[in-house]
Amino acid sequence: MQAWLERRFRLTEHHTTARTELLAGVTTFATMAYIVFVNPGILSAAGVPFEGAVTATALGAALMCVVMGFVANKPLALASGMGLNAMVAFSVIGFQQKNVPWQVGMSVIVIEGLLILLLVLVGLREAVMHAIPRDLKRGIGVGIGLFLTMIGLSQGGLIAPAPITLVALGRFDQPYVWVTLIGLLGIVALMAFRVQWSILGGIALATLAAWMLKLTAPPSGAIVQTPSFDTFFAVFGSNEHGPYLWQALKPALLPTIFGIMLTDFFDTMGSIVAVGEPAGFVKPDGTVPGLRSILLVDSAAAAIGGMFGASSMTTYIESAAGVAQGGRTGLMPITTGLLFVLAAFCVPIVKMVGGGCPIPNAEHYAAFAISGFSIPETPPMMLYPITAGALIAVGFLMMHSMGEIHWHDWPESLPAFLTIVGIPLTYNISSGIGFGFVSWTVIKLLNGKAREVHPLMYVISTAFGCAFVIGR
Half-sphere exposure of residue 269, counting CA atoms within 13 Å on the CB side? Predict the structure, then answer.
């Protein structure tokens, strides 16, 4: 077995071992497990069958993680994209199916995925990756690191929404904040002792703390649940208005297809760059060997996500957690994928590890309430303190590219800076990348260096500019 793994994944060449890759895969799964619960909750609000969405989310992620591992041999895991799922649920389908049937919404994802796949096959998506300036690529990685940190701080309750100032310090008298801090401090302590599985160890400590504080508990009943396939291949059906795939092509939905495609296109690009730098598969000139294989799998994942009923699946930035744990080959996402298979059957266990805990919105806002501001009556918020510390730690580990940006060369560094701050502050990877693209192109034009701009940069910058003006 060891010999086969060595031949198939070239472990020695990548300076890793099977044990390290397996541990990295488990770590990546632990930081991604929340999607099994969050995604069905979002999709079911738009009418997608909940149990079917759970199965589609888990098995879809499992399939594409395994495919990425075998086809591209890169430490990149995939699952239903956050943000994209909300766009499908509330912008395409509409709350409680007021706009279009959920099958049509998933058909939009299938079409978008096939279009992205076509761009890969003709070499356009790969060409765009190579056309991006190096400092801009580094800025993308740093920006996503800050984005992960912000997500971790928010999911752990260390920061919270606030009127006027937008964010403020969280409530440190709450047990979910204690769980986050225990997990984060555990990671720091293990890193100080150079423990290779520091992130996974921190997650384990946070899980134990959550049990003790009664935020989560070991499953008390059955741990196995039969999967439901209600949503699988529903896009190939029809209703009184005709085939769902045909309905997805109606003019009113075409701008939405473009918007989702643009977001999917650049979210993936940012994730590949951000994970690829610390994983060592991004060359000094910014190129990525084997990029086409990565993009083929990622593009196919979007279409398959729609076919399964899981929304668009994409490369996950949480893969950086596995890379930080030492993952360097495709064995890492394959391990993650196999755990997602188990997740389809063992929802109670995944829920325990994912660590999601509901809190009343009023509690989250209470410390920052200002006279004259009322708190809306909305469902309880969900926090994920068990994995929050891991996200914060990974965000820190992604800061290394900051020092490689040529800050003295402001025409190159200013767009990188706008990307760095744009990604977390807009809470959207694609928007932050758009800031960088547009500003870099404009600065080159103003400096009289139009010839230094790759033709694709003109096209993409124009597309981003139009998207910003028109709105998505």
Answer: 31
Question: Which pLDDT tens digit goes with each residue over 384-434?
Answer: 898 889 889 888 988 878 888 999 999 999 999 999 999 889 887 778 888
Residue 355: pLDDT band with limits 50, 70, 90:
low
The Cβ of residue 455 has, within 10 Å, a number of other Cβ atoms equal to 9
DSSP codes of every residue in 104-119: HHHHHHHHHHHHHHHH
Q: Are 28 and 333 in contact (CB under 8 A)?
A: yes
Q: Mind listing the pLDDT tens digit for each residue in 211-254? A: 899 888 877 777 788 898 999 999 999 998 899 999 999 887 87
Q: 102-122: buried (b, 16+ CB within 10 Å) or exposed (e) per residue?
A: bbbbbbbbbbbbebbbebbee
SS3 of residue 162 by DSSP: strand
**Residue for token digits 């977001």?**
263
Identify whether the C-beta of residue 336 lies closer than 8 Å to the C-beta of residue 325. Answer: no
DSSP code string of 203-217: HHHHHHHHHHTTSS-
Nearest partner of 68 among 59, 78, 60, 58, judged by Cα: 78
- Between the two ends of the chain, the Cα-to-Cα distance in Å is 49
- One-letter identity of residue 127: A
Q: Mention every residue, 6+ apart, whose C-beta is less than 8 A from residue 108.
A: 88, 92, 248, 253, 256, 257, 260, 306
* Per-residue confidence (pLDDT) for residue 68, from 0 to 100: 97
> What is the rounded (10 degree) CA torsion for 406, 411, 417, 419?
-120
Model confidence at 375, pLDDT cuts 50, 70, 90, reads very low
Q: Looking at residue 380, what DSSP letter applies?
A: P
